[in-house]
Structure formats: structure tokens, C-alpha cells
Amino acid sequence: MKIFVSTASVADVQWAIDGGLAEGVLTTPGSLRDVAGDGEERALLADICRATTGPVCATVGAVTAADIYRDARELARISDQILVQIPLLEEAVGAMRRLRADGVRVVATLVFTAAQAVLAAKAGAFMVSVALDQLDAFGQDGADVVRSVSALFAAHGMDCDVLAALPQHAVQFARCAEAGADVLAVAPEVLKALLLHPLTDRGLDHFLRDLSVHHRPRATV
């Protein structure tokens, strides 16, 4: 299992990568725009690619077949590290197939069911992204969807990875990992929260007291 840090901040990318907590990066159009401003998103993507040797997910800015294909090819030219995120729409299927033939790695987004995931894989997706936050908002359990997709891919030998996007807490993170997610994309603030537990502060106090007693100077005669 791999972890991608979900951010467009180069500083957050470097923190996660340098600490060995993440192997890749997931960006969104909004996160890139918030950091770089309009018109500078691709320059920022290049900077992010230089901050890591791992994969970097970038999203096309189009919804028609010809525009999706063109935009995806342009994104892929930024770096060999780029995984191009494409929404699973009827218009996108032909473009995904062409891109796979061109050697462009595609991440299918807007995947909410195992059936959609299978169709995305058959269309040429390298990876499918299951949006946990959107499923939760709709009243569905994202971890159950991840489990169904992972089981189907394994049962039929389908060469496609499963990305669980944006778990919100440790329990959801663990459930998706147990469900077979190949990648978990985690926001920096959630990744930092996963390092802690309600007992962390209590345990630290106990550790420091124990350390203080252990290092107390011995009385001299």
C-alpha cells in the first residue's frame, strides 16, 4: 500500500516525502489554483514533480473527448511522473483508450461503484479513484466500495490499482487499507493527525517523567 499526500503545496509535499510518509502526490484543479493562481498551475505541477521522484496526479480541464485527449497529452509532457486524472464520463472513454495506447497513465475519477471501476479499467485506466468524502456525503460507506472494487479486480486479474481518496480519520484510513486499497490519498492535516492518538500526550508525559527519574543525579557521599 502507498500513500499520496493530497496537496499542491510544495512545502507540504517535501514534508511528507522527506519524512517517508508518502510516495506520491494528488493535486486538484482547485488546490493548484489556490497556491499558484490562474495560469500558473502547470508551472506549479513542474515544481511539485521536482520535489518528489514519485507519481503526481493532475486533472484534465475538459469534458469532451477531443479536449480531454489534448489536455491529457499536454499534462503528460510536464513530466514522466504525471498520472492524468480523467472523470469517468461517456465522452471520456474513447480518450482514455487512446491515452493508454500512447503510454499515458490515466486515473479514472468519479468512480462510485464497482461496476464503474470495472468499465474504467477496461477502457484503459491505470488506476481508479474512489472519493470517500463524496460517498460519505451521499450516505454510502466508501470503504465498502473500495473492498468491492479490490475484490473484483483481484478475482478477474484486472491490471488496475485502487486509490481511496481523502479518508478523514484513522478508522476510515485503516478500513480502506484493510479493504485492499493500493493507494490512500491523504490531506496533510489528516496525515499529521494520524501520527497522534488521544493517549499520545499522556504517554509523552509518562515518558518524560520516566526519563527524568532515570537521569536524576545520584547523591554523593
What is shown here, in short?
The chain has 221 residues and is α/β, with parallel strands linked by helices.
Provide the descriptors you would attach to this structure in a database record:
11 helices, TIM Barrel, single chain, 221 residues, eight-stranded parallel β-barrel, alpha/beta
Question: Your description of this structure?
Answer:
It is built from 11 helices and 8 strands. With 221 residues, it is an alpha/beta fold. β5 (106-111), α6 (114-123) and β6 (127-131) form a beta-alpha-beta unit. The longest helix has 15 residues, at 200-214. The radius of gyration is 21 Å and the shape is globular. The model has no long low-confidence stretch (mean pLDDT 95).
